Amino acid sequence: MKRIICVAASMLLCMMLASCSRQPETENNPGSVVVGFSQLGAESSWRIANTASMEDAAKDAGFGLMMENANQKQEKQIDAIRSFIAYQVDVIVFSPIVENGWDNVLHEAKKAGIPVILMDRMIETEEKDLYTAYVGADFYAEGRRAGEFLLQKADAMKAEHLNIAEISGTIDSTPMRERQRGFMDVIGGDPRFTVIDSISGDFLRSKGEECARQLLDQYGVGGIDVIYSHNDSMTLGVLDVLEKQDIKPGKDIVLITVDGEKEAVDALKAGKVNCVVQCTPNLGKAVMELVKKLKSGEHVAGTYHPEEGMFTEFDDLSNPAVEGF
Ligand code: GZL
Fold first, then answer.
1. What is the pLDDT of residue 8?
2. Partners of 228 in the beta sheet?
């Protein structure tokens, strides 16, 4: 009996959402534009800054923003997209937690005639018309930058051989796959380097701590020369562990990290981190610009990468431009 009531209630909710009357779209009423946004979680400072960027940009554009936070669950993102379709939002924006498993729900959005913008991460699909555009980093280039720093660092150390441990982000996410691929394409053929292990910290500070403890237990501080961590949150967890074990981060172990949040850049300035590859969370403005173009009937397609760089120990760290988000 309870199940029947639940099913009826959810059907009623969908019918209510679907029957919501939408204000007529007028030039003077940008508020009539509603963006459905499925955010993947709140796992890191980067993600929290990214959410704020989307909220601020929607407000500045005068758009309504229906945001659902999936708390790291793909199925919750899929449910959110279905509710946006039921509500008949103007545009769907989402940051896919992993690259696979989106075709069915994006077919439903396509059938409903709702354009989809991928923000921050990509999807893997044979059908490129399931989304209109991608706004986000070139993660492969970020990985290459991390590798290029390590080549420079190894030269400066006159190192004959370095053991590298990788702490990766969420398995099968675009940043994890591409930051690894870019890094390996730069350092993989160099006989000075051996990647002794790659374990996932899921972009979480707490799991970054667990990974650091696991790697030190397995290889010892003498067995690890470099840690390449796919985001600052995990790196900050690594720092917590190293310092508790009287290991000097940035000296006993070279630390390379990605994102560029303030705490990581401060650690670079303090000599505890050796390289911070930038990955801007501020994508909201670019996304809303595309929404405006879509709503005015302009053609929108392709990839929109923000400008990004990196800060390293070899830079003038007193330069005010060296700052985190
Ligand atoms: C990168 C983004 C990653 C960040 C992490 O664009 O997807 O997810 O590097 C975040 O901090 O968790």
1. 52
2. 166, 256
Atom from ligand 1 closest to the CA of residue 258: 9
Query: Is 233 near ligand 1, meaning CB less than 6 Å away?
Result: yes
203 CA → ligand 1 middle, Å: 7
Residues of the chain with pLDDT under 50: 1, 3, 6, 9-10, 12-28
Which CATH code, of 3.40.50.2300, 3.30.300.30, 3.40.190.10, 3.40.50.80, is assigned to 30-137+281-307? 3.40.50.2300
Res 24: pLDDT: 41
| pLDDT at position 21 | 34
Residue whose CB lies within 8 A of the most ligand 1 atoms, among 43, 46, 228, for a mutation test: 46
If residue 110 lies in a helix (H) or strand (E), which one and from where to where? helix 103-111
**Do 111 and 81 contact (CB within 8 A), yes or no?**
no
| pLDDT at residue 18 in the model | 43
325 lines ligand 1 (CB under 6 A): no
Q: Does domain 139-279 have CATH number 3.30.300.30?
A: no
**How much distance in Å is there from the Cα of 256 to the middle of ligand 1?**
15
Cα–Cα nearest to 81, from 91, 312, 56: 91
Query: pLDDT value at position 32?
Result: 85
Record the pTM: 0.91
Q: Is 120 in the pocket of ligand 1 (CB under 6 A)?
A: yes
DSSP single-letter state for residue 88: T
Q: Please say whether the beta carbons of 195 and 225 come within 8 A.
A: no
